[in-house]
Each structure stands twice: as structure tokens, then as C-alpha cells.
Amino acid sequence: RAKSQIEELLQKKNSFGSRVWISDNQLKMLKLTAEKGSIKTADALQVSGLSRKGSYNVLEKLVQLGLLERAGVKKGAYYKITEKGQEYVG
Length: 90
Hints:
Elements: H1 2-11, H2 24-36, E1 38-39, H3 41-48, H4 52-64, E2 68-71, E3 78-81, H5 83-89
Antiparallel strand pairs: 1-3, 2-3
């Protein structure tokens, strides 16, 4: 099982050829965003089972990696998948 997980992680690369390592929760949120087009922190809460702050941190990490982009402000903020994120999921 560990070997298959390592192989799967090694196959996931960003468009620049360097490795992008994301957690299972990050992958779930990325896939959800790809399916829905955009998500809010509340959507991420339902999928991940994390706290509000934990979900926010996961989404912000995906923004830092360039896989998601944040739009809106404060309670109206939502996240959209980027082209790089689409390539990662697809």
C-alpha cells in the first residue's frame, strides 16, 4: 500500500516538472472544486471533516501552490480551480 501511494505521489507533477505534494484533504477539496466550479469554506467543511480554520488552511495552501485562486472577500470569499489545478486533477 505504501509503495502504491509513493508511486502515485511521484506521478503528480506540476507544469514546471517539480513535485507538488498535497494531502488527501487537499486532493478532496481540489476534486470538489473541479466538479462544482467553485467552493466556499463551508463546502470544504462538509468534505473534509476538519474545523473551519483547518479547512481554510487547506484551501489557502492550495492557493499558495497555484492550484486554486481565491475570489471575493471575507464571508463572500470562494475558491475557483486554476488551469494548473485542472491539470493536476485531470
